[in-house]
Amino acid sequence: MVADDSAAGIVDGSQGLDLSQYDEEQVRLMGEMCILLDENDKAIGAASKKQCHLMENINKGTLHRAFSVFLFNSKNELLLQQRATEKITFPEYYTNTCCSHPLATADELEEDGQIGVKRAAQRKLEHELGIKPEQVPLEKFRYLTRIHYVAPSDGMWGEHEIDYILFVKADVDLDINENEVKSTRYVTMDRLKQLIAEADQTGTKLTPWFKLIDTNFLYKWWASLDDLDALVDHDTIHRLL
């Protein structure tokens, strides 16, 4: 499913962009096909990760589907990652456990029960962190809500996403892909609040979607981690623009 470029707001000239200054593997991943959306989260086509993340296209309205996984261990500690230096967008920023995009494939386009997004989350947890699918079975993922946000990374790249928020509680084994992840740590709620409060002083960079989720939702969800039913909202797309 490929969208008409003019309808998607995609700039044709981006196809010839020179990416030679970036990491070879990260450039390869820029060819993956993301799911293009209208503002109500209806799939309207597909475009490459590169096309979706260029600010020249974002400024014309290009919007894609994403997910953010928050993985907690049996102590209710949250696994954070620091994005690798090689990443093209937001390199070395700290963020939640795993953040990426469902692809425009039959398995990950499937919307019933948000199964496509959950499959994508399971795939990327293994790709980035080496977490085996059997440690995070699809039925363990809890879809809470969606946020719609836009954020520049630098003058060229940025994000414009409808982001599905997924919680999962599991004790997992990590085998870090260093091309994706520079470091990881588990944090308690109090420790995360301290890290964020001190971020400017310590020079810690936080991804914009993580800051938005932290500010608006995270702690009430975290406090109810084992009883989230009352906090689930599948109807609202929270516009944090």
Automatic annotation (TrEMBL):
The keyword Metal-binding applies. Its EC number is 5.3.3.2. Residues 62-212 form the Nudix hydrolase domain. SUPFAM superfamilies: Nudix. Pathway: Isoprenoid biosynthesis; dimethylallyl diphosphate biosynthesis; dimethylallyl diphosphate from isopentenyl diphosphate: step 1/1. GO terms for cellular component: cytoplasm. Keywords: Isomerase, Isoprene biosynthesis, Lipid biosynthesis, Lipid metabolism, Magnesium, Metal-binding, Steroid biosynthesis. Signal peptide: none annotated. GO terms for biological process: isopentenyl diphosphate biosynthetic process; steroid biosynthetic process. One of its GO terms (molecular function) is isopentenyl-diphosphate delta-isomerase activity. Its cofactor is Mg(2+). It catalyses: isopentenyl diphosphate = dimethylallyl diphosphate. PANTHER family: ISOPENTENYL-DIPHOSPHATE DELTA-ISOMERASE (PTHR10885). NCBIfam families: IPP_isom_1. Belongs to the IPP isomerase type 1 family. This is isopentenyl-diphosphate Delta-isomerase. It comes from Coemansia biformis. The gene is IDI1.
